[in-house]
Structures are given as C-alpha cells and as structure tokens.
C-alpha cells in the first residue's frame, strides 16, 4: 500500500482542493500530464450534507450523508470520465476517503444528491446505516483525550461527527463497496481521513479486502492501492503514527512544520544537511510529505505557522527544497484564495462552484490560486522527475542560510535565505555547458528567459545570488527544460 503507482518517471502529486471533475480532466490534459505531474488528490467524491446555514463552507464535504458519487464537484459519470482522461495522460487519481464518520447534527438534512438523514436516529437511509452501525455509548472527543485516552479518540465522535463502528462487518462492507467501486473506475489510491480515529486492526481488515488496481487503466496486475493515512502526530500524544506505518503510508505533518520554520529563518538552512529520519521524520517510504494542507493552511488540524501561498517567497523556497530533496513522497497544495477560514470555494448564488479561468501567463483567475501553475513550483516537479533516484551529494553550506546540493549527476540547486548576497563557486555535478535557471525562467529555444549558469569542464559554476532577488533559489538540471 506504499507504492503510488505513478506512471514511469513521475514523482509528485497535487491536491486540487474543491476542484470540479470536468475541470480536473481538462487540467490533466492541458497541464498536469504534459508537465510530468504524477497524480492528484481530489476532494471527497461521495455525497455530503449541504450546509447553507454556514454559507456552504469547505468543510461540508467532510460530512458524508451517503456513498453516492454526487457532490459540488460533479456526478458519477463526470468522476469516472475524469479518472479515465487523467490516466490516459499518465496522471493518477487519489480519493480523499471519509470512512470514520457520517455527518454531525444540523438543522438542514439534505445532501448534495438529494439524500436525507434522520440525525436523532443515526439513520442514513441512502447507505443504509442505522443506530447499530455506530459506536456506543455516545461520547465526544475532548482536547485532553489525545494525551490520555486512545480508546476515546477511536470510539468517540470527532467534532460531533457520528462515529461509525469499523469493527462491524456490515460497516466494513459498505465502506468496501464504496472504495472498491472507485478502484474499478481506475483510481490509484486513497487518503484515509481521520485515520487516527479508527483502530489499526479494523483498517487492516478493510485494506486487505480492497481489490487490486484496475489493469484496464494501465496498472500492473496485482497492484495494490496506494494508501496514505491522515494521522497528525507532532509527538507527545497517546496515539503514535508508528501504529499506522505497518499498515500503509502516513501523512508526515512534522515535515511541513520544520521546513516552514527553517524557511522563515527560525532555524538555519544549514541544519537541513541531515534532513530526514534524523530529524524525527518517518522512514522515507512511509511518508506522504507536504508543506501545507487544506486544514493547516487555515488553522484547522495541526495549525501553527505553516507557510502557505500567502507568504509566497518563503513558501516557494520550502516547496523547492521539498521537491529537490530525495526524502518522501511529495504532495503539492493547490488552493482557492481565502481570508475567512470557513469560506468554501468560489461559487455562484446557487452554490455551484465556479471554475478557475486560465490567464495568458498560465496562472489562474476567478479566485483560484493554482500554486501548481506557479513557474517556480511546476518547474521543480520536472527537476524532481529528472533527479530520479539520484543521491543527494556535494552538500555545501555557508554556516548559515545559504545551501546547495546535487542530485546524482542530473540536477543542482542552491538557496540563499540570508540577508546578504551569495557569491560562490560550487560543484554542480553536471556536464560542462550553459544551463537555464528554471526558477527565474526556463529555456526558450537557444536562450534562457531568466538567469543562466555556466558549468565548466570540472563541473563547477560560479553562483551569484543576491539576497534581494525575487526568489531565493536557482536550480538547473539535465534535459530540455534547463540545458541549452
Ligand atoms: C465542522 C465544524 C464543527 C462541527 C462539526 C460537526 O467546524 O464545529 O462540530 O462540523 O458538524 C473538517 C473541519 C472541521 C469540520 C469537519 C466536518 O476541519 O472543522 O467540523 O470538517 O465538517 C483532528 C483530527 C484530524 C482532522 C482535524 C481537523 O485528528 O483527522 O482534527 N482532519 C481531517 C480533515 C478535516 C476534517 C476532518 C478530519 C473530519 O483533514 O478537514 O474536518 O472529516 C490535535 C490532534 C489532531 C486533531 C487536532 C484538532 O492537534 O493531534 O489529531 O486533528 O488536535 O483538534 C497543535 C498540536 C496538534 C494539535 C493541534 C490542535 O498543532 O501540536 O497535535 O495543535 O490542537
């Protein structure tokens, strides 16, 4: 369950938060496929409660009312069409699976597909679930439970969301019907929402009953779905991420927290010389890595000084380090603009999500940030693909916030997060030649649209990077996008 089954040569996925299925299909064909992205995490595709009393917040999608595939992102046909079109251009789809719970209790009780629920009786007729399918006696998780009481974290309600009993074979079967249907449609795996709130032995039973990936969509025979479990473990709680790594991969929240600190100069970049398990991070193969996610970018979940698109210079630095460094399986965040942390995606007065528009410079409009379309970010996806399995070598630092390293003999990157200029001759591990920096620009015909870097026959190059440049890093690699 730890292999994302990316198409060959691809390494990185992006969370297209709240995107519609038709827009994602188009984005696969016009952008993600051609530019080497490996996959997409999509918002939950199953029917959720419509919460007009809070003006359709983003979090209504974490309130399941049935497993029918109908949401503001689209219906079942649109979903399966998206999966097929994305797989056809080498981009995999990973589903955010909410299997811990159903909705909380609200005044409104109609879902995005018209299904209803009777909250007083724990009755969800469109599955169907009834009282016996939930954990009893009824209780709600409190903040202190995380420190003392694993059984309460697993058996009580998260934020009042009705807590399914995954120990029940009937419940397991409903969940499996839902997940296996998605596998048959060609998805490559799942994010397991709120995994901390489910017993590992129950999850194991569910995972082991999942079907193999669909060979008609290009997966090898016998391939198991990629599973990454959402477990927030910053240390010190009664439940550890180590209870979940024997099952499948885990979201590594310490990764984005530490890099956010470092790139805000609360920690010197030179300490990243031994980035990885020596920092207390999971084993590389167990870690789904990211800087921000849809929760902590707005203060939900494990919040606290996480870099986001709002601090773009530092954010791009942290993302570039994530993509340049061999550790982990990286996931990019692609956001809609927000100030109100509860606000849902751009929508019209009927509550329909409005699509992103694409500007001439490749950026998005209509309220969508599309970090994945920022040149500094998507060019680094190509850098990571090019670096492949190449080892990190030739680490250099100035004893402060200037660092540089090679990836095998494929790629080289240097960062200057100091308040003074960088002026240094460094080993790039690349063949002699002129290379275009892929951060300030790219190659266009026989010239660079941004900076160029000349590598000598000894592999060394003079790297001059001012502290006041638009971005804090320069990156070059073999291959058409960078080498002249
Ligand atoms: C909404 C309303 C609620 C209402 C509820 C029920 O906001 O007022 O009661 O509906 O009707 C999302 C939103 C929720 C929303 C929910 C349903 O975030 O606000 O509730 O949809 O619409 C815990 C879980 C983790 C979860 C996270 C948000 O462990 O699984 O809370 N994330 C996922 C999704 C998320 C979604 C759900 C789960 C539910 O990604 O989008 O909720 O499907 C500690 C624990 C964490 C715990 C946090 C939050 O973290 O370790 O496990 O996360 O507390 O309580 C420092 C610490 C860190 C600590 C953190 C916060 O950072 O180091 O460990 O502080 O204390």
Automatic annotation (TrEMBL):
GO terms, biological process: carbohydrate metabolic process
SUPFAM superfamilies: (Trans)glycosidases, Glycosyl hydrolase domain
Domain Alpha-amylase C-terminal residue range list: 393-481
Essential cofactor(s): chloride; Ca(2+)
UniProt-recorded Gene Ontology molecular function terms: alpha-amylase activity; metal ion binding
UniProt xrefs under InterPro entries: A-amylase/branching_C, A-amylase_C, Alpha_amylase, GH, GH13_cat_dom, Glyco_hydro_b
Pfam families in the cross-refs: Alpha-amylase, Alpha-amylase_C
Catalytic activity: Endohydrolysis of (1->4)-alpha-D-glucosidic linkages in polysaccharides containing three or more (1->4)-alpha-linked D-glucose units
All residue ranges annotated as the Glycosyl hydrolase family 13 catalytic domain in the record: 11-384
E.C. number: 3.2.1.1
Gene3D superfamilies (UniProt xref): Glycosidases, Golgi alpha-mannosidase II
Record keywords: Calcium, Carbohydrate metabolism, Chloride, Disulfide bond, Glycosidase, Hydrolase, Metal-binding, Signal
Top-rank lineage group of the source organism: Eukaryota
Similarity remark: Belongs to the glycosyl hydrolase 13 family.
Known partners and oligomeric status: Monomer.
Full protein name: Alpha-amylase
Protein species of origin: Bombyx mori (Silk moth)
